[in-house]
Design goal:
This protein has helices at residues 15-26, 41-46, 48-66, 70-73, 80-90, 97-106, 165-170, 185-196, 216-228, 323-341, 358-361, 380-385, 401-406, 439-448, 452-455, 468-476, and strands at 2-11, 31-35, 109-112, 114-119, 122-126, 132-143, 147-149, 177-181, 200-204, 232-234, 237-244, 250-256, 259-265, 267-270, 274-276, 310-312, 364-367, 372-377, 390-396, 413-419, 424-432. With 478 residues, the protein is of the alpha/beta class. It has three domains: 2-40 and 96-148 and 275-341, FAD/NAD(P)-binding domain, CATH 3.50.50.60; 158-272, FAD/NAD(P)-binding domain (3-Layer(bba) Sandwich); 371-476, FAD/NAD-linked reductase, C-terminal dimerisation domain (Enolase-like, domain 1). The strands form five sheets. Strands 1, 2, 3, 4, 5, 6 and 16 form a seven-stranded mixed beta sheet that branches. It has a five-stranded antiparallel beta sheet with strand order 17-18-21-20-19, with helices on both faces. A four-stranded parallel beta sheet has the order 10-9-8-14. α1 (15-26) packs parallel to α10, α3 (48-66) crosses α5 (80-90) and α3 crosses α8 (185-196). Bound molecules: flavin-adenine dinucleotide and nicotinamide-adenine-dinucleotide (NAD). GO terms for molecular function: dihydrolipoyl dehydrogenase (NADH) activity; flavin adenine dinucleotide binding.
Length: 478
């Protein structure tokens, strides 16, 4: 059994782990990164990258069709085979050698294997051949193991071999039909993607609306678009049983409004949420429960671990399960561990480089459905729940002149949530084609706590969709 010593051992080489390692090396530390699967993680191969690649052609086509002139140039339909080929290119054919080379170039030692913490600062990595390497971390261990899908205990589900995000982003052909269970981001994006590529899609949603964590109009506009695109969208359903003809179609039985109904399709995607990937990590050997990795300070250091050597970063800590937020936390963690090795306190005071402060109230997210949903900060409801005295204003995005230019039939909505006591924006939501590229302006306003008085002087260019910020301020009363 080989033994090695490094300043920092990172477990998990997704976007979070890669960035922790990179920042720590840049800060002068020696770093080993243990990866059980593909370097690049879920995001690169089975999540963000392939799903957005599957979604992009429908958005591009929609924009081309939206205006006279280019609409006439569109004479065909989406070439699904070409889309799947591009998806394959974007995931590099599930070959992570490019990312492994990047790690090498960054000065990070890659250890292929499954990491397990066996004692404080000791990680055992078991490789695909069963060989074990023991890694000693002089300073710290950063757990960046991400998340895995949750499959609810529905009778017959396991035997029916449903898709999770992995199969749903890696499928080699378009299924004739697909049932999607779930109303969250994964469900909506992938229902939209496969519908746009030609599958007949049924979507079974448990609650009364889609995208429940967002402003209600976001889910309403996405639901309307999905229906318009031909998705059979059912709300207030409870999936009770799944069955499958051996090797054949899946039938999902569900209840809705007191009735029992069923749908049958070639494939079934369960998009029913994710949980932290903590199985087999050895936390129990440290006297820690699986929930311990969610109990972190703003520097992502796990609370209550003697010596403070354990960090939990990215999806696994459950603070903000998004790639950009995992990478943001990673920058803070890599810098913090390096600074502390130099004897600096690197206290995670709010808005210092040592703290992932934005996790609390300034998380941006773009949902790549059509229309897109882009949001940052608090919804009106969440702000009120947090005890803020807020006033919210809304504006019809379709009446902004830049939007009319973009698409004469532009449909969308914008909302700005203002903290009345501090006169700053604490949340914003935009729904409409192409709004994903607009949200960063709002993120800057929320993080910068820019007073409305000053925001008034941030003049949006004419004729862009960004003029909505002026209209929102006018609606507010400027
Ligand atoms: C379908 C889908 C689409 C998404 N789209 C977006 C999007 O558009 N934008 C966005 O911001 N977010 C998106 N997300 C969320 C995003 O994928 C995650 O937030 C992101 O991947 C988290 O990065 P991570 O590095 O923390 O974890 P992961 O990417 O999950 O990486 C964790 C890594 O750890 C490895 N690992 C696990 N356990 C061990 C172990 N014991 N030893 C060694 N290695 C281990 C895994 O093999 C994996 O490589 C999407 C998620 C899904 C499911
Ligand atoms: N574009 C993006 O930023 C993007 C895209 C995809 C995923 N993600 C992230 O990945 C994470 C996971 O997304 P997700 O959609 O899997 O989870 P989610 O928590 O957003 O949604 C889960 C959905 O499953 C439903 N559900 C749960 N149990 C159910 C059951 N037994 N029967 C029927 N429905 C059930 C819930 O009601 C909810 O609608 C999220 O944090 C999300 O932000 C981000």
């Amino acid at each position: 059994m080989a033994e090695h010593e490094f300043d920092l051992v990172v477990i998990g080489g997704g976007p979070t782990g890669e960035n922790v390692a990179d920042r720590a090396v840049a800060g002068g530390l020696s770093v080993a990164l243990v990866e059980a699967g593909l370097v690049g993680g879920e995001c690169s191969y089975w999540a963000c990258i392939p799903s957005k690649t599957l979604l992009r052609p429908a958005a591009a086509l929609g924009q081309a069709k939206a205006v006279q002139g280019s609409a006439q140039a569109v004479t065909g339909v989406i070439d699904a085979r070409a889309v799947l080929r591009r998806r394959d290119e974007m995931v590099a054919g599930f070959d992570d050698s490019g990312q492994a080379d990047w790690l090498k170039g960054a000065g990070v030692t890659l250890v292929r294997g499954r990491g397990r913490i066996t004692a404080p600062r000791i990680v055992e990595a078991t490789g695909p051949d069963g060989a074990t390497v023991t890694l000693t971390a002089r300073l710290a261990v950063a757990v960046c193991t991400g998340s895995v899908p949750v499959l609810p205990p529905i009778p017959g589900l396991a035997q029916a071999q449903p898709w999770t995000n992995r199969e749903a982003t890696a499928a080699e052909s378009v299924p004739d039909s697909l049932v999607v269970v779930g109303g969250g981001v994964v469900a909506c994006e992938l229902a939209w993607a496969w519908r746009s590529l030609g599958a007949r899609v049924h979507q079974l949603v448990r609650g009364p609306r889609l995208l429940a964590g967002n402003e209600p109009f976001a889910g309403e506009l996405v639901a309307a678009a999905l229906r318009e695109a031909g998705v059979d969208l059912r709300m207030e359903t409870e999936t009770v049983e799944v069955s499958r003809v051996p090797g054949g179609e899946r039938t999902v039985r569900f209840t809705t409004g007191g009735r029992s109904e069923s749908v049958t399709a070639a494939e079934l995607l369960m998009a029913t949420g994710r949980r932290p990937a903590t199985d087999g990590l050895g936390l129990e050997a440290l006297g820690l429960g699986t929930a311990a990795l969610a109990d972190v300070d703003d520097d992502c250091r796990v609370r209550g671990v003697a010596g403070g050597w354990l960090y939990s970063v990215g999806d696994v800590n459950g603070r903000a399960a998004l790639t950009h937020m995992g990478k943001y936390q990673a920058r803070a963690v890599g810098d913090t561990i390096a600074a502390r090795s130099r004897g600096e306190a690197a206290e995670p005071r709010p808005w210092t480089r040592w703290a992932a402060t934005a996790d609390h109230r300034a998380v941006p997210q773009v949902i790549f459905t059509e229309p897109e949903v882009a949001a940052v900060g608090l919804t009106e409801h969440a702000a009120r729940e947090a005890g803020l005295r807020v006033r919210a204003v809304e504006y019809d995005l379709g009446s902004v002149s830049g939007a009319t230019l973009f698409d004469p039939g532009y449909r969308g909505r914008a909302k700005m949530v203002v903290d009345e006591d501090r006169q700053v924006v604490v949340g914003a939501t935009l729904v409409g084609p192409g709004v994903g590229e607009l949200i960063h302006a709002a993120t800057v306003a929320v993080v910068g706590e820019v007073p409305l008085e000053r925001l008034w002087h941030a003049v949006p260019s004419f004729p862009t969709v960004s003029e909505v910020w002026l209209r929102l301020l006018e609606t507010y009363g400027r």
